[in-house]
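User: Here's a chain of 125 residues. Predict its fold as tokens.
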Amino acid sequence: MYSTTVLTDFVAQHYLTVPNAGPEGKPHSHHYEVELCFRGPALNEFDYLVDIDDAEAALSDLEDRYRDTMLNDCPEFEGDNPSVERFAKVIFERVTERVTDDTVTELAVTVWEDDEAAASYDATV
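Assistant: Prediction complete.
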């Protein structure tokens, strides 16, 4: 299995909407780092798994969409708790709409909200 990984980072804000969220229930910022790991069993005719320009464009779109944004105000979080786990799935959905290489069969998204805590979402595409 081949894999290609790309990274980006940005600051965004959120607050948790669960009962008894404590300090996390108040608006606060995180310096998020997002890691996209594309996987597949074969390379394309140019010996690439994924077009790196498309992957970087997807990262740029993520930065543009979420940098300095209150995640709670984004329609994709409406009715959901904007946890780091939910954020990883939201990013997965956005990236799989953008990067459509036939050689990519899986995508793993890891979102770090600080140096010690991260959540991932991975699935077939």
